[in-house]
Design a protein that fits this description.
With 117 residues, the protein is mainly alpha-helical. 51% of the residues lie in helices and 12% in strands. The protein contains five helices and three strands, in the order H-H-E-H-E-E-H-H. It has helices at residues 20-27, 30-42, 57-69, 88-94, 98-116; strands at 46-47, 73-78, 81-86. It is globular, with a radius of gyration of 14 Å. The N and C termini lie far apart (43 Å).
Length: 117
């Protein structure tokens, strides 16, 4: 894992340290999958406050940490905001097609759930 150089720098795994098990674990939770789907749809860096999640702030922080430590997202501070970006290039290089397949499956599942609601 890369080391933080300042108190505001966050640790992220280097590309060669990202493990499939960690990525799959990070994507296995419905809230984290929702975060990733939103990030993929917006295709931009998003602040944590952008996400309206059905969990407490501390749980939201936990979900973002799991995504970051799993190598799914990169978090950076800009002023007082913490911005989040998908590590699409890293994931595609390591696990070709995985993120696209997971996002497509999650979209199909959401469509099925919407149809039955």
């Amino acid at each position: 894992m890369t080391t933080a150089t300042s108190p505001r720098a966050l640790e992220h795994p280097a590309r060669d340290q990202i493990r499939l098990e960690a990525v799959l674990h990070a994507l296995s939770d419905p809230v984290r999958l929702r975060i990733v789907r939103d990030m993929a749809r917006e295709r931009a860096e998003l602040s944590c406050s952008y996400f309206d999640l059905p969990v407490t702030k501390s749980t939201t922080t936990h979900h973002f940490r799991v995504l970051r430590e799993g190598g799914v997202i990169r978090q950076t501070y800009r002023g007082t905001a913490k911005l989040n970006a998908l590590r699409e290039d890293d994931l595609e290089a390591l696990f070709p097609g995985l993120l696209a397949a997971v996002l497509a499956a999650a979209g199909a599942q959401a469509d099925r759930e919407d149809a039955t609601a």
